[in-house]
Amino acid sequence: MKLFDLHCDIGTDVEESLRKGIKDPFTTRHLNKLHQGDIDYVCCACFFEGSETWEYMAKMITDLERELEQSDVTFVKEKEDLYKEGKTHAIISVEGMCGIKEEPREKIQFMAKHHVKVASLAWNDQNYLASGVKSDVCRGLTVAGLEAIDEMAKCGIALDVSHLNEASFWDVIKHHTGKICATHSNSKHLCDVERNLTNQQIRAIAQRGGIIGMNACASFVDPDKSKQDAYHLALHAKYIADLVGVDHVACGFDFMDFFEGEDYMAKGLHDSSCGQNFVRALYEVGFNEEEVVAICYQNAVRFFSE
Asked: What are 269-295's pLDDT values in tens digits?
């Protein structure tokens, strides 16, 4: 079963690998694992935690653009590219816009010009545009943030709400006229961590025609370590589908195996090559064939093609 992964920090790994002198990092470090897991679509996130400059942001985006141009993939620039057969589909995304400290419309236009298709205003930080989940709980979108989301709607960049605090989230729901998604978040009802979504947030995303990508990070799946696995991640998909409909459920695994340090992933979902373990778990929790296909890739393809 082919998969559409809405979030993998490949953009950041490509930049770090280039800095170390590694040639063709997308191909040498990622493409084989994507093939093994039958991940046919992947959003390659350029991740910015809060201290990066605009110059660094722009460099990572353009370096990734160049790497994808040179790789044996379908680099998704236009909607029609989503339907080309035969190669992995690679999409540029941005996680956090801390580098934008002035002229947000101009910066958003730059991102659109370089084929960014989905982006979040903030990671866990508080920045010029918005606030993430580890910042001031009462601080929502700034005036500049409102400008940014208006320009995103005009440029056709989908707005990812995965890391926003609730004040910023609800400002997005109130003011944004474009597409909304949560690329890598689960249900807070099943796992009460700040990065997961409340029932009210899930309903709000669904009402706007958005999708929610299931996140395979262990601590977002279940507080019980013995339940941090593909089956219990699939239960998040089942819960959200029962709440708002299967059309709003997708995959956003957030694989991080290519970074040094602790393994943060759920059992059986260590890296992109393990994607089919989630497919099997979807069947185990009661989804039928049509529903599994929708969750695995059809919902996300529809979201980006509309």
From this structure: 999 999 999 999 999 999 999 999 999
- pTM, two decimals, is 0.97
Quick one: what percent of the chain has pLDDT higher than 70?
Answer: 99
**Bridge partners (DSSP) listed for residue 95:** 47, 120
Instruction: Determine contact, residues 139/162, Cβ cutoff 8 Å.
Output: no
CA angle 10, 282, 248 (to 5 degrees): 70
Residue 21: CB partners within 8 Å, gap ≥ 6? Answer: none
Query: C-alpha dihedral over 240, 164, 256, 37, to 10 degrees?
Result: 30
Q: Is 123 in contact with 163 (CB distance < 8 Å)? A: yes
What's 198's DSSP letter?
P
Is the per-residue pLDDT at 259 higher than 80?
yes
Q: How many CA atoms lie within 13 A of 90 on its CB side?
A: 25
Tokens describing residue 290: 């049509």
* Residue 191 to residue 217: CA distance in whole angstroms: 12
For the record, the structure tokens of 28 come out as 């040498």
What's the chain's length in residues? 306
CA distances from 296 to 2, 116, 175, 278 (A): 7, 22, 30, 9
CB contact burial 178-206 (16+ within 10 A = b; e otherwise):
bbbbbbbbbbbebbeeebbbeeebbebbb
Q: Are 195 and 187 in contact (CB under 8 A)?
A: no
Helix (H, G, I), strand (E, B) or coil at 118: strand
Give the 3-state secondary structure of residue 40. strand
Buried b (16+ CB within 10 A) or exposed e, 217-248: bbebbbeeeebbbbbbbbbbbbbbbeebebbb
- Rounded Cα distance between 104 and 119, Å, is 13
Residue with tokens 């660094």: 56
